Amino acid sequence: MPAPLIDLHTHSTASDGTDSPAGLVAAAAAAGVDVLAITDHDTTSGWAEAVAALPAGMRLVRGAEFSCTSPTGRDERDVGVHLLGYLFDPTHAAIHAEQSRLRDERVQRLRAMTGKMAADGYPVDPDEVLSLLPEGASAGRPHLARALVSAGVVTSVNEAFATLLYTGSPYYAPKVDTPVRAAIAMIRDAGGVPVFAHPLARRRGRVVELSVLEELAAVGLGGVEVDHPDHSPQDRELLRALAAEHGLITTGSSDYHGTNKTTPVAAERTAEDALDAIVEQASGTEVATGR
Predict the structure, then answer these.
(1) How many CB atoms are closer than 10 A to CB 267?
(2) How far is Cα 282 from Cα 85, in angstroms, rounded to an integer?
(3) What is the pLDDT of residue 140?
(4) Which of 31, 127, 281, 284 is paired with 87 by a 20 to 30 Å CA distance?
(5) pLDDT digit string (tens) for 94-115?
(6) Rounded to whole angstroms, how far apart are CA atoms 164 and 182?
(7) How far is it, in rounded angstroms, from Cα 288 to Cα 279?
(8) Could you give the 3-state DSSP secondary structure of residue 248?
(9) Can you point out the beta strands (E) in the chain?
């Protein structure tokens, strides 16, 4: 039997992807994916639609990507990081409250950034941008980027980020994210498994030192995303060695966003034994299987 094709990090229109949750499942199935994780930013609103769309035999790992802050391990300010939570109970009080707060933070940031751009004459309106989001979806800079593309200001989402929406841009606005240790504790308390997303994605900006991952492993971190499109071969080996030393699960994922990014679904994959380890640790939500 060939090994199953497993992609444990993808996004739908419930956050900043361009495929609906059902469309995401269809795209993954067309690519031959056997096990898919839906991991939208700070929301579980796409779970039900994705489960309903599963073809017979395909499995869905329900999860989310949590917006966090973390020390870098250097003498400098904290850095924004992402934590993947798998198979947690979405009704857990702390998770529910924090995801709601984070979604509110995202709306306020998008309003602030859009307002700054409108004041400088860009043809964007906060209410119009936000009206395009499905119920319960997480607002993000890609939504503003697509509005700029539609208005003819830029030709692509990538150009919007490179020229106008990057961190530090005059139009950038921060948001208050969850301390990573608190997020790990919440996910564990909700029966889930926390995995540090793309920890050495250096092309995105500052990253944490490996010592930070070692410290988080001691307080409940379950794994690290090793095989990711933004990781170099050298950094993958560093992460693999660290995971082996500290008993962390290693995953691989596309971080698929539909047309918002060029990476196709299943560009990177997770080994079956890593999925088994996640399922063994989880008690909040079961893996769904299409019938």
Answers:
(1) 18
(2) 10
(3) 87
(4) 31
(5) 999 999 999 999 899 999 999 9
(6) 32
(7) 12
(8) coil
(9) 6-7, 35-38, 59-70, 79-86, 178-179, 193-196, 223-227, 249-252, 288-289
- Distance (Å, whole) CA 139 – CA 129: 9
Give per-residue pLDDT as tens, 264-284.
999 999 999 999 999 999 999
The number of residues making up the chain comes to 291
Which residues on neighbouring strands pair with residue 83, listed in sequence order?
Answer: 66, 196
* Tokens of residue 47, six digits: 């779970």
The neighbour count for residue 79, using CB atoms within 10 Å, is 18
Helix (H, G, I), strand (E, B) or coil at 39: coil
- Number of H helices and E strands in the chain, helices first, is 10, 9
**C-alpha angle with apex 257: 252 to 258, nearest 5 degrees?**
120
Radius of gyration over alpha carbons of the chain, in Å?
18
Confidence (pTM):
0.91
68 in Cβ contact with 42 (< 8 Å): no
